[in-house]
């Protein structure tokens, strides 16, 4: 709490983001903001009381020297104001900041020298008791130095003893016993003020360290890293060239943590940090973003092509040192890492975006088998899209971006007998995303469970609505992905939705389309799930039949009532004899197992005729209708009905 308050105290509200830079040595820490902020109060503390000194000087008969001194104060104050403004005007490159800092230090020296000067001027004057004023001034100035300058030892360490030394000498030169006593007291007071500054400085350092560093590894934390990165970007704007961001993530760190405990995990992280620090050139910034994620800002690279190879060499060196055996509390551990690299150049201003892109590249390195380096630039458009989808799909449901379409399923007389629900995702950033793209991603990430539930609820509502509007269908098909089907809560959720939204009569219309990938699951579990769903009245269809590897024996055991002849076979019917044999075979199997068939993707009359002739019972495809909005589907059915009545 105390630390936090102290920190806020330093990172004032009116100033640009906390711009502090930490080096390894304490003496090299710069509190730019704080030093900057003291300029104005110090000027105010000099310009106004300075008038009092001018008045006293006039009364003491030293008006001209006092006036000259005051003029000095005014001039130096003007200089201070200029320095103050220079810092605020724009983001300074690091070297400019260093130069600015040196000038500010000079400004402070000159300022305090001026106050020492007024002491020297007045201490010899007994007229108007100016020597008392002088003594007070010197003590006051030392106290001010001690309270204002403690963030910079290069200021308070020479200035406080220097000013108090003048007093010590002055008292000693009085030549009286009380003068010697006062002289000793002045020395002691100087020591106390110096000690106070020193303590405050140490406290400031500690607070600063706690706010900007990770306590476990001692590396800069995410927040501090962000300001380092922002500074690097400003620097690059002035210097030109490129720089790199390396995001390092340990592979399978979680396993170590879970199996051996957090203490060992912490030990490992510390050692990783130590090795990284040791391997990186001092000009690189290293930070821990959290967990087992580390990040590095590499050196400035004068040109891109040679720079990239340098980064590869560095990254590979890091991977190598991280892979060496770790011995932590008697455990011998091995761990590898994945590194994502983002090279950046002046003008790329969004630090958050850079980190995210390095993160995406790192993720890609993991996907490519871990223990490797991937450059952000090398990630294909496809992977990028994959990652975008993954990121945005999470919010798709709550933002109502996912909707359903319904494609009619017709019999040989072209009468609509059913519908297949197909989902659509429209995202403002990505536009229309095909379910062929986002369903597999939802399956990989597990989001399919939530998405599937959402789709089922919408689908059931539509079915009920249609029923209420007098649309009668024999079947209502919903695609169910395997991961969704095998989810432990799936049956219970379907039961709950059925209970809430559908009558037992309507439930009998439901067909769940599953794919041949169920083969890869445990047969008994699949069967148990399907059995329980059948008890609710739900039937099953084998989607995309013939594209996977169907084991006939397995198919025979599954309670499936329908086969869907995949679009790819229907597509090629006219040109490819193999597709024709395939369709023949599928229809043969369906006949043998006594299953209904739906031929999907029927686009031409020729395909329709062929399939009808071969004995397929049901049809679906653009020849009849594209997937429709719920209301359009209703209209489609009504029109079919009226056509039927008036042939
Ligand atoms: P699918 O289950 O095989 O669905 C049939 C796909 O073929 C649909 O594409 C449909 O629009 C398209 N199609 C229908 N007739 C024709 C035609 O005559 N010509 C052509 N070229 N295409 C036709 P869509 O809607 O893009 O869906 C693609 C796949 O995404 C689906 O293949 C299904 O595997 C999956 N999918 C769609 N909606 C869902 C869903 O709600 N849940 C799950 N788990 N998967 C879904
Ligand atoms: Ca389907
Ligand atoms: Ca299909």
Written account of the structure:
By secondary structure, the protein is of the alpha/beta class. It has 25 helices and 16 strands. The strands form three sheets. An eight-stranded mixed barrel has the order 8-9-11-12-13-14-15-16, surrounded by four helices. The protein has a five-stranded mixed β-sheet with strand order 2-3-1-6-7, sandwiched between helices. The chain has a two-stranded antiparallel ribbon with strand order 4-5. Bound molecules: ligand C2E and calcium ion (CA) (2 copies).
Topology:
Layout: H1 2-10, H2 32-37, H3 39-59, H4 63-89, H5 94-123, H6 130-148, H7 153-173, H8 177-212, H9 222-239, E1 243-250, H10 253-260, H11 262-279, E2 285-290, E3 293-297, H12 304-323, E4 326-328, E5 331-333, E6 337-344, H13 351-367, E7 373-375, H14 381-396, E8 402-411, E9 416-427, E10 431-433, H15 435-445, H16 448-468, E11 475-479, H17 482-485, H18 490-501, H19 504-507, E12 510-514, H20 523-535, E13 539-545, H21 552-557, E14 562-565, H22 567-572, H23 577-593, E15 596-599, H24 605-614, E16 618-619, H25 630-645
Parallel strand pairs: 6-7, 9-11, 11-12, 12-13, 13-14, 14-15, 15-16
Antiparallel strand pairs: 1-3, 1-6, 2-3, 4-5, 8-9, 8-16, 9-10
Helix pairs in contact: 1-8, 3-4, 4-5, 5-6, 5-7, 6-7, 6-8, 7-8, 10-11, 11-12, 14-15, 16-18
Name its key features:
binds calcium ion, binds ligand C2E, eight-stranded mixed barrel, elongated, 60% helix, disordered N terminus, five-stranded mixed beta sheet, 647 residues, alpha/beta, 25 helices
